[in-house]
Structure formats: C-alpha cells, structure tokens
Amino acid sequence: MAASPNRILEPCDLTDLPVWFRTELTQLRDSAERTVRDTVGENLDVFVWWPERALLLWRECDRTPPRGKKHKYFKYPAHIKDIARPLRYTLDGWPNGPAIAAFCIAGGVRPAQSAGVVAVHPVADALVDEFPFFTWLLRARAYQKFGYDPDGAFSKTRDDYGFEPGRAFEVIQVPLRGAVAVS
User: Fold this and answer.
1) Is the pTM of this model over 0.90?
2) Which of 61, 62, 78, 156 shows the greatest Cβ crowding within 10 Å of its Cβ?
3) Per residue in 112-131, pLDDT tens?
4) How many helices (H) does the chain have, and how many strands (E)?
5) What are the phi and psi torsion angles at 173 (to 5°)?
C-alpha cells in the first residue's frame, strides 16, 4: 500500500463533494487504490450508517477522561435508562457507550453482526484512519445531514453544542420536576 497523504489538497467543497473528493484522490499514485477509495466514497451509505436524527444524551456527556485517568466510564442518569428501557436497548458504561446509545436511541441501526463495527464498516474506518480527505468527506456529510460542525469548519456560527443555528437536534435533559424533557 502506498503511503497515506497527510493533508488535503483543497478545502472541502460542500457544493460539490463528489468532485472535491475525486480531486483529493489524485494524491494517490496507484489507480487501483484510487478506484477502491472512489467506490467507497460514491457508495458511502453502504459503508456508513447514520441515525435518523441528531441526539445528545446530556450536556456533560463527553469522552474526555478526567485529568490523570486513561478512560472515562459512564453511569447513566435514571431518565436516560427510562428512555432506553422501552427500546430494549442495553446501556454500556464503556467510553464509547454513550455515543453508541445516542446513535441507537436516535434511530440508528447497527449492523446485525457488528464484529467491532458500530456504525462504520471496517473499510470506511480504515480509510478515516489513513486518509484525511476521507475524514473530511464524513465530516462534510454529517454537516449536510445534521448541521453538526463543532470546529466551525463549514459554518461561521454554531451553538453551544456545535450545531449550525436553526438546525434540528435533541438534547435529553432532566427538567426540574423529574420528568424527561427533550429540547
């Protein structure tokens, strides 16, 4: 396998992602490698599964471990357990558990035989690790689908959660009286 490029040639073009992606593929010397990556990019929905809607479990929920710790493990608030129970979804306290829970509660479907796959096929996962332009393709698609842009790469303004203003998303919160509310 040829060496992976460590940069993108041009800023990601939201107005024509397929053309932008093919331009980025020109960094690869081998035509067979370009063909494989182009095929994955053109058929992204075969390799990447998206939830039906954007959902955040609770405001303080992130994977950043506390200072001096290797991992952050989660205990879910009762209201999240109440939402997961009728869906027959088992909550996982491991570091990636809340991300998977949000994906599933938001209507995402995990592959039947996951074998390490959450919502991304191993081929796409490997491409994200090796090719920055593939990572940018996924970021662009997430922005187009949900308006999610925490780093401000595609929008000039974003709210406290990283979404473009005016885009629909849900945050599960505990209201003052204990009932579950979604904003």
Assistant:
1) no
2) 61
3) 655 444 588 889 989 998 99
4) 7, 3
5) -130, 160
